[in-house]
């Protein structure tokens, strides 16, 4: 190692500049969300009583992402001679940069009810729709909405708009909004996180999956929640009735189903019978398992009229897809539904109409037996924020970075390195096959990008090297800057363009190094940090005084990361933020004037039960900004996805979607890896991602 370590003198200004009190210039932030651009969810419905593969109806309008539906009245099933079917549906939608709850009344005509044609042959001759926004929209606080219910004019839902004030605790809480008056009240006690609310048929009780006072322990598979019941009207009378359970669904005011992962590794559905005439408690309820081992069964939906029938999502050992099935709790028999219609698509979170005539669920509208390819027309999706001086965008890629003037964006798609104008024009594939991660522009040499090439999240001795790439030439030119391939990654260039800071595993640990920006290691290199920990994801401040980075130095090897800053000469180490003793805070990036940073963190923990969504390695990641003194911590994203790799640019981009033209399959996302069954029918082998 000594042969490649050349000690050189690095001059910096060690006097910290005072934080400016003037209003910062308007800027833009871009980030990535794992798999989000592939979702294109809509809510669909199938009849419960059918013996044919027919009549799957798309209930929502194909606008952005629609999910977690709830029928608010019985489906109007007209006689066979009348082919019109009416639906009243409440659901969560993500559109126009924010999450909302919509109420749709949909009338579908031309439905063939003879059973002679499959859904692939059926055409609906007419569909009418009226829509109403119940909660959310661009004029309200941005928050995710989990699983809504409407009882009369009272809407029950989850929102994350209230800061708990405590790191690594979920902001998810249940609220009610009276639609006639707009009166909103919090039903969840302070200091508690509630998920997946379900209102009893009479509207008297609400059941929730809750962390109680345990908080969040970092789980990304099963949250280890308990189930509490309280009065829907005001949240009073709250009592724990089930230890270890989630996703409640009522049969009547004294019986509900829920799911949990059993000691045998299988997710299964259980039933709870609440006592009549005496107080509820864990000791007073009767609980039993109703679905068998040998397959995963979860997110149950109870039938109000056919009380022995529930709808469940399943993962069977012979399928790579999540499907909706009916289960008879008396006979113990399953009846497949969605697998008969679209065997190669994931189906999520069933719900049953009050008259038990139909089951709803959401899936990707671009998947199915026809292998449909749909247009993916968003390069940058604008996300609404409460900060008027920042425009926020989700990019259809990873590790984005702005050019020095903000006119271009570099990003990767794993594999592939790309450059595009910030208005969506001029997209250029620099290299389609290279496994690149992280990008950073040279501030002085026009058209030069730095990236790391090799496997991500690998050991210290894995072959990963840093390259500079000239992109403003006919044939992009790659120049290798590091030697030895010992996991050299996350380059960031000094403001004068002379040096690159990066992380390397060459000492046996991932520490920070600085090398010559043009000649690489051959032109000079020094070790900036040294210790038996991991320092990584570094970013150089605009004035050159500081380098921000993520590190587990407070607990080496634990997987817990906080943010730190250090001067380029190795002095002045400063701790910036850490979400909690086991928390993860990563990917810092300075704003253009160096007074703030943007980063991703689990500071707000998990916002929904992870099993109710597609696979995310870190379903707790949200984008935050903060001043360098630790003040003005601001949450920018509110969802149950994995938001990460943010970058802060010098140019304010108009807060509207940036479109591009590319055709590809929308639905190429994965189900939760830890639901995979790989060891036969006797055991569920848990596969952890990360």
Description:
With 690 residues, this protein is mainly β. The protein has a domain at 377-661: 6 Propeller (Neuraminidase), CATH 2.120.10. Strands 4, 5, 6, 7 and 8 form a five-stranded antiparallel β-sheet that branches. Strands 28-29-1-50 form a four-stranded mixed β-sheet, with no helix packed on it. Strand 5 (76-77) and strand 6 form a beta hairpin. It is elongated, with a radius of gyration of 26 Å. It starts with 26 loop residues before the first strand and ends in a 26-residue tail after the last strand. Residues 1-22, 113-125, 367-373 and 679-690 have low confidence and may be disordered.
Tell me roughly what share of residues is in helical segments.
Answer: under 10%
Tell me the radius of gyration: 26 Å
Structural class: mainly beta
Mean pLDDT value: 88
In the CATH scheme, the class of one domain would be: Mainly Beta
At the third CATH level, what is the topology name of one domain? Answer: Neuraminidase
Please name the defining characteristics of this protein.
about 700 residues; Neuraminidase; disordered N terminus; single chain; mainly beta; 51 strands
List the helices and strands and how they pair.
Layout (H helix, E strand, L loop, with lengths): L26 E7 L7 E7 L9 E2 L6 E7 L4 E2 L7 E11 L2 E12 L16 E11 L12 E3 L2 E6 L13 E6 L5 E3 L7 E6 L5 E6 L15 E6 L7 E4 L3 E7 L2 E7 L5 E7 L12 E4 L6 E7 L6 E7 L7 E6 L4 E4 L1 H4 L5 E6 L5 E7 L9 E2 L4 E4 L6 E6 L2 E5 L5 E5 L4 E5 L6 E4 L4 E6 L6 E6 L11 E6 L6 E4 L8 E5 L5 E6 L6 E6 L3 E8 L7 E6 L6 E5 L10 E5 L7 E4 L7 E6 L5 E6 L20 E6 L6 E2 L7 E7 L13 E2 L26
Parallel strand pairs: 1-29
Antiparallel strand pairs: 1-50, 2-3, 2-26, 4-6, 5-6, 6-7, 7-8, 9-10, 10-11, 11-12, 13-14, 14-15, 15-16, 17-18, 18-19, 19-20, 21-22, 22-23, 23-24, 25-26, 27-51, 28-29, 30-31, 31-32, 32-33, 34-35, 35-36, 36-37, 38-39, 39-40, 40-41, 42-43, 43-44, 44-45, 46-47, 47-48, 48-49
């Amino acid at each position: 190692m000594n042969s490649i370590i050349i000690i050189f003198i690095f001059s910096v200004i060690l006097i910290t500049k005072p934080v400016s009190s003037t209003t910062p210039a308007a800027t833009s932030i871009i980030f990535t969300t794992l798999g989000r651009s592939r979702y294109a969810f809509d809510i669909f419905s199938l009849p419960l009583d059918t013996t044919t593969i027919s009549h799957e109806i798309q209930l929502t309008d194909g606008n952005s992402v629609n999910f977690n539906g709830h029928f608010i009245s019985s489906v109007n099933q007209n006689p066979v001679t009348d082919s019109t079917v009416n639906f009243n549906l409440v659901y969560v939608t993500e559109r126009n940069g924010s999450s909302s709850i919509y109420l749709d009344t949909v009338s579908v005509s031309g439905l063939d009810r003879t059973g002679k044609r499959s859904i692939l042959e059926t055409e609906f001759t007419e569909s009418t729709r009226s829509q109403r926004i119940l909660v959310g929209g661009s004029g309200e606080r941005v928050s995710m909405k989990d699983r809504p219910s409407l009882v009369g004019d009272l809407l029950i839902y989850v929102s994350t708009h209230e800061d708990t004030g405590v790191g690594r605790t979920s902001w998810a809480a249940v609220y009610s909004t009276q639609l006639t008056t707009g009166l909103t009240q919090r039903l969840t006690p302070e200091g508690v996180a509630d998920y997946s609310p379900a209102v009893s048929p009479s509207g008297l009780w609400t059941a929730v999956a809750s962390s109680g006072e345990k908080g969040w322990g970092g789980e990304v598979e099963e949250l280890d929640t308990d189930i509490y019941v309280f009065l829907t009207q005001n949240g009073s009378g709250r009592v724990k009735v089930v230890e270890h359970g989630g996703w409640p669904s009522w049969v009547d005011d004294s019986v509900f189903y829920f799911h949990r992962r059993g000691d045998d590794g299988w997710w299964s559905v259980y039933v709870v019978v609440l006592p009549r005439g005496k107080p509820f408690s864990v000791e007073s309820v009767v609980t039993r398992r109703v679905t068998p081992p040998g397959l995963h069964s979860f997110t149950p939906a109870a039938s109000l009229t056919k009380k022995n029938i529930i709808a469940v999502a399943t993962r069977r050992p012979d399928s790579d897809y999540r499907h909706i099935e009916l289960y008879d709790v008396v006979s113990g028999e399953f009846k497949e539904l969605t697998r008969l219609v679209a065997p190669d698509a994931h189906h999520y979170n069933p719900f049953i109409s009050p008259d038990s005539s139909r089951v709803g669920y959401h899936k990707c509208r671009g998947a199915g037996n026809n292998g449909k390819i749909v247009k993916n027309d968003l390069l940058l999706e604008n996300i609404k924020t409460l900060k008027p001086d920042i425009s926020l965008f989700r990019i259809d890629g990873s590790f984005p970075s702005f050019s020095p003037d903000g006119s271009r964006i570099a990003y990767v798609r794993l594999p592939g390195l790309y450059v595009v104008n910030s208005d969506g024009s001029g997209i250029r594939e620099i290299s389609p096959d290279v496994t690149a991660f992280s990008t950073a522009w040279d501030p002085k040499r026009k058209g030069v990008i730095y990236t790391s090439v090799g496997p991500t999240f690998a050991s210290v001795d894995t072959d990963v090297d840093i390259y500079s790439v000239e992109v403003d030439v006919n044939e992009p030119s790659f120049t290798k800057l590091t030697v030895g391939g010992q996991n050299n990654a996350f380059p960031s260039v000094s403001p004068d363009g002379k040096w690159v800071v990066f992380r390397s595993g060459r000492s046996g640990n991932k520490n920070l190094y600085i090398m010559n920006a043009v000649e690489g290691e051959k032109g000079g290199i020094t070790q900036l940090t040294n210790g038996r920990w991991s320092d990584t994801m570094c970013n150089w401040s605009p004035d050159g005084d500081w380098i921000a980075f993520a590190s587990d130095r407070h607990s080496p090897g634990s997987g817990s990361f906080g943010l730190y800053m250090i001067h380029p000469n190795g002095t002045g180490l400063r701790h910036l933020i850490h979400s909690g003793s086991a928390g993860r805070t990563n990917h810092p990036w300075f704003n253009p004037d160096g007074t703030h940073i943007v980063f991703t963190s689990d500071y707000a923990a998990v916002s929904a039960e992870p099993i109710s969504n597609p696979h995310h390695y870190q379903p707790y990641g949200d984008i935050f900004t903060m001043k360098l003194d630790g003040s003005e911590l601001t949450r920018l994203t509110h969802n149950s996805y994995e938001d990460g790799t943010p970058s802060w640019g010098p140019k304010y981009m108009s807060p509207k979607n940036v479109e591009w033209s590319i055709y590809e399959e929308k639905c190429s996302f994965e189900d939760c890896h830890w639901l995979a069954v790989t060891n036969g029918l006797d055991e569920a082998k848990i596969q952890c991602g990360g």
